[in-house]
Model the fold of this input.
Amino acid sequence: MSTRPVDDVLELFAMKGDECYGEAISQRHHALQCAVVVQEAGSADELVAAALLHDIGHLVADREFGARSDMSLEDDRHEAVGARWVARRFGPQVARPIALHVVAKRYRCTVDPLYYDALSPTSKATLQAQGGRLAPDAVRRFEADPGFAAALVIRDTDEAGKDADAEAPPLEDFVPLLDRVARSRR
Done:
């Protein structure tokens, strides 16, 4: 880990940000689209950072934790891997929604069948690998989780941020925000 957490983010996106994961969009482009949507909604810096970094587990899995991250449609637990990586650099307020964004997808598909119908083919395939719809007791536990609302924001943004033709700012535009978030956790 570098002394400046944002440098770790920039390095990862430089090395692996142009990889795709079953969608017609790169990791970098997807992350940037998600961050822009959350930022334009007027959300707190921590939630914008979570939107930007929600899939970082795909980029760090093999390097940081020895997990497989081959961008396949199998469950690589990228949400857990990414949340651990992010927590060390940006704190729990950023990490919690990342840790919960997969269960948020499972929740949305459980409580709203139309949500499932609107998922991309890749999201439908990964949903099954990630455990499918939630049982009723899991729905209640997730709804009671303090990170529930933030996780739903990240999940909804995750699905919306898959437009290969959408414009997105450069990653460097988010450096000041990431620096602020990293400094605020000290």
